[in-house]
Please model this.
Amino acid sequence: MSTFATIGILFVVALAVGFAAGFFVGGDDRAQNMRIGVLVAVIISVIILIDRFMQSFPGYMEDMNGRPIATVGSSTPGYAPDNMWRVGLDVFFHLLLPTISLLTISFAGYTRYARAGMIEVLSQDYVRTARAKGMPERVVVVRHAFRNVLIPITTLVATDLGGLLGGAIITEFIFAIPGMGALFQRSLGPGDLYPVMGYFIVIAFMAILFNFLADLAYAALDPRVRVR
Model:
């Protein structure tokens, strides 16, 4: 019977096989073929996982009486099937609506920043130079303009991810999800200081971690920034 540990082991084996295939067959382009082999292994693994979940979806629909999308909680109370794929579907559909709500809130800000950044960047000298060289408009926009717009957006995404992992208090309260935000809210009423202090420690740690990851992402987005 499949378990999450088995899936993880098989995924690592698939990555190793893709890496080894690119290494032994790559020839002069060995590095590029190893990257392609790993990428193909990831894509095929994701497709197989999606197919296996979809095979279990009709049975999950019968268990949920034709109403798979839940609105409360992180899982169905008392639902413990032997099939791990149905357990995964249950968790997915319980987290679907909270995830959409959080993404919608953040997406509005990202689009505004991206629009303002693109308007500013498209008037820069290096963009006009790229167009004067005869580059296609898609290359000018995606490779030159949008890549620089992603730098401030990366900072926003890192800040939002740190806050989400620290706890989305309102979203967890509405959807009754027992997360960090719910723990913080329950601890405020009786004045339980230790969970509150732990909550702020987690928030601070996540803020430091994701700001560090954002700094590393700058090196990939901006050729003027390099990690030495």
Observations:
- The chain has two domains: 1-68, 96-228.
- The mean pLDDT is 83.
- The chain is about 80% helix and 0% strand.
- The helical segments are 4-25, 30-63, 84-121, 125-132, 137-166, 169-175, 180-188, 193-221.
